[in-house]
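[job 0412] stage=fold_complex status=start
inputs:
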Amino acid sequence: MRDEKKTGSGSSEFDFIARIRRQAQKRISNLDSFSSLIPHPSSLILGIGDDAAVIRQRSGLDSVITADLLVEGIDFDLDTFKTSPRDIGHKALAVSLSDIAAMGARPRWALLSIGVPQTRWDSSFLEEFYKGVRALACLHDVTIIGGDISRTPERVVVDSIVLGEVLRGRAVLRSGARPGDRIYVTGSVGGAAAGLNILQQGSHQQTTRRRTRAQRQLIQRQTRPTPRVEWGRMLCEKKLATAMIDLSDGLSSDLAHLCRESGVGARVEAGRVPVDSLIERAGINESDALPLALNGGEDFELLFTVRPRAAAKLPDKVGGVPVTHIGDVTGDEGKACLVEGGRARILKPSGFQHFKRS
Amino acid sequence: MRDEKKTGSGSSEFDFIARIRRQAQKRISNLDSFSSLIPHPSSLILGIGDDAAVIRQRSGLDSVITADLLVEGIDFDLDTFKTSPRDIGHKALAVSLSDIAAMGARPRWALLSIGVPQTRWDSSFLEEFYKGVRALACLHDVTIIGGDISRTPERVVVDSIVLGEVLRGRAVLRSGARPGDRIYVTGSVGGAAAGLNILQQGSHQQTTRRRTRAQRQLIQRQTRPTPRVEWGRMLCEKKLATAMIDLSDGLSSDLAHLCRESGVGARVEAGRVPVDSLIERAGINESDALPLALNGGEDFELLFTVRPRAAAKLPDKVGGVPVTHIGDVTGDEGKACLVEGGRARILKPSGFQHFKRS
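[job 0412] stage=fold_complex status=done
writing structure:
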């Protein structure tokens, strides 16, 4: 028995795209109503429904583009963890918005390519997925302008593409850090990895209903990350960040990426790392907290560097999200160290990698 | 035993991305050496290796963006058909270049998101895949500026994103056809579908080595389609095409898309449809040829409309590829008919659909 309201019932992907297109057009008609740091942004000429989308370019701006692939069974889990399709839509867009934020750019346009098996097509999966995408897109004035829908044999796969804009020459790269710069991180770290651990344990122990409030909040850190778009734009607009990266693989790994691109080293104070306070509240061992914060990944906070003389101009919070000075850039190229209890040790990049080294 | 030259041997995805980046940078250094219809194209500020790519915008241009998802087991077959990784790289980019061509735009930048299982990572798959991408990109002066690499549990999945440029307001949409316009198609049709049939039969009969030259050429139509970039750009530059679409789903379906967007109908002469001559040479039944040409899909030819008074300006060939006048646009909104042996019948959209209607 098929539910008449469900996606695939009596409809082809062309019908579905037509529906997504109508919903997108509602957004387009509201496009001119927001205020922006960018005086004359580009405008959408043509969205979903032709061979490609068309955007009118404006000089004085640079376009910023990123793509992020999420695969069922690797990046998210629909069955074991009971992650909702809406959360997957949210996360797919969030991950790309975070990349745009890490460039200091303003996100403007998104394309979502999604592959689903016939069974998901015959359910409300895609409708729910796009609800998650649209809610987050709306929050950041991002318009969905295209993508692709394809069938897959078994698993859901999503590629999220976001285009942003930044004033000419002002994108914040990973390569601008200099020795003496201070290293900051927004929000808190380790929560997403702790949330993943709880999901993984829960799937074995069937303890879903007995989770504490803190545990449920940690799971949300994993399933509904918040991209730091406002922080990124502010740091770019005020010319405060000399280098920036988002924390997707894990602080230790992402700091290593930034150091390598900048040709510098780093010294991080373990005691300053803003470990997510939910970790303690959820009853996770104190000894596990710092490794989660350093290597856990998927927090989608921003890690950035600031010249010492500009540090005073840094606000304590943006949109309620605090920032923490966790250490400093050194001239010791390629070496990051962690100072703990007065002793320094090498901070080895131990974050997420998709492929095992042989 | 692992081959030292292979992708995954002792390397992470970061090493692989670094390699792709070096290869891409070689291309970037040659960027200014080509001639172009567009006087001041955008320029690449930052390619692979940061959170996102950065492109400098120029006013007077519109950006054109498309994404196409290809999934192993649906859109291509590695094991049964023995499709080479290089051919998959070629086809992934070709499909998106074809979309850009169908807008009349010049393709400029590409992002490739690719998911592969660990076993493919441990083989030369990705190296070969990118060789296929790069060879076609090079042919069209397209630079690879980003994407994502992810692990998948079983199957290869590719999302190909291409950005192009077109003079302001000059993109050729699906919606510009008017009653009386002539309908044209580039090259020939039906070959890609015939090639797929041969692959599917061969996989059962194990007749791979006994294929004729024509059969092998038809397989190439399926595995290595040629996007009609030069035709698309010429039709836009000379303002000849009033509407355009590329033939991905099949002539009957894609013509229906164009008619719907333009609010028109169409009348196609069966005898004029340029059925791929390889089909006859490969010994395929004459009665099967026209259905393959009308509904087969994946030919990636361009279907476009031209005002009757402009038709004389249309060249016979562009880059050796001919064009055929197959019929005319009518005012009979939403209705396409096929005239065969003096009798007209409805041309039902019967091309490829990913999802079955329930």
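[job 0412] summary: Chain A has two domains: 13-167, 182-346.
[job 0412] exit 0
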